[in-house]
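User: Quick sanity check before I run a bigger batch. Here is a single chain. Can you write out its predicted 3D structure?
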Amino acid sequence: MALERNEFIRRSVVGKATGVVQKPLGAWERLYGQAWARKLFLLVLLGIVWEAYGLYLGNELLFPTFGATMKALWDAVASGEMASRMAVSLKVLLIGYSIGVALAALLATTAITTRIGTDLLETLTSMFNPLPAIALLPLALIWFGLGTGSIVFVLVHSVLWAVALATHSGFLSVSNTLRMVGRNYGLTGFRYVAKILIPAAFPSILAGLKIGWAFAWRTLIAAELVFGVSSGSGGLGWFIYENKNELEIPSVFAGLLAVIAIGFVIENVVFATLEKATVRKWGMQH
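Assistant: Done. Predicted structure follows.
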């Protein structure tokens, strides 16, 4: 009797499982499931709101329309000026960001391997992390003069502390089990950090890299506004300042739009690709 009842239950379950018919998703549902489609929709919506507000004000010197801004952006791109300004900004950013990340890695590695390094990191970050990078501009002018060196100096300051803190915090969060595995294999010093701590703490490190990038990009544009005025050259910050002086407000908004576009691409393409190839592939995020 028990066998018959179990067989009846089994057939009922199998029948229900095989009898389920999944409804295929419609075109709109499939499109909505794509992150890029949702973001594109939001961008289009923002553009419509921008255009409507610009038309409502009717004052190009106060707030140009989205169409006028795109025309100014296209003219700057067609003339080659926008590309050259972007190249200048990105080159300086890459130099400052790379130096800042390298110093942060060295500081975090020293902190996690020695007690004096921990004290050094805690002391320096408590002193300099709250200090805005833009506040160092006067000193940068005195120490490095006009030009790229001064901007790189403030970029390193803006990147260093955020990345060092995030990296060190990630190292501290690594489980004792992984630490003991590394010790049992005889790993010490840099090999221990590279093979055990960095892979395990990479989500925190990646978050620190994102924060450092955002700080560096904002600091770069602000610094270019100052150094561009002083030296008569620069990247996107100087482009914005120059057009503001000439009351070319659509070009000012075009420069701001270029700054936003670069930030959007870095965040949603470069860092998203890096995250997909590392922490998501390793199953550390879902």
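Residues 13-17 have pLDDT under 50 and may be disordered.

User: Great, the batch can go ahead then.
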